[in-house]
Design brief:
The protein has helices spanning 4-17, 25-33, 55-61, 64-85, 111-134, 181-192, 202-208, and strands spanning 41-52, 89-94, 97-102, 154-169, 174-179, 198-200. By secondary structure, the chain is α+β, with helices and mostly antiparallel strands. It is globular and about 50 Å long. The protein starts with a helix and ends in a 10-residue tail after the last helix.
Length: 218
Amino acid sequence: RISHSTLVRANAYFLKKHMKQFVPLQVFEELKRNPEQIQPQKRKATILFSDIRGFTPMAERLDPVDLSYLLNHYYFSPLGAIIFNNLGTLDKHIGDSIMALFGVPVSHGDDAYRAVVTAIEMREKLTQINQSLAKKHTGELLSDKLSTDSYLPVGMGISTGVVVAGLFGSSSKREYTAIGSAVNVAARLQSLAKAGEILISEHTYEDLKDRILVEPLE
């Protein structure tokens, strides 16, 4: 049986080595005070998925260096900053998808609202980025290789529910993540969202229906 002190030391090591790159400073400082919060536990959380529409043909057209620059500079970095600014946890990048958690490992009481605000701010930022990319002159990076008006057409899905959040993985690689039906629903909503759409689950809506305007689907 693993002792309590061993678990605390292991959690503290993981925080110092890995967690700081996935959470904003305010959350990181809270985790340092109580590292047990990253141990697996059932918690209510809101999950946000973002994904680029039509990414595969885009990736096939672009030079690998251009593709890397596009994703890192215009997508992962600015959207990750918005997640951090709203006290979310950047769970992972899955190809061209971003998974973010709100409410775990630290809850702030308005997690669903902050997740939706994050998605709206991400959409606004992408509109600015796409306008900037569209103004590039022919022959510069990307401008002669993408013919659509939306260079980064993104759809997003958000769901709220009870998840199991904590450290998961093998002895050689572990990561902090969340598992549960709310994660699956958020991923499914993201796959259904058209470019520029933010689809939220009924449970997310119930947590913030008096704070934000929505349009019901048929």
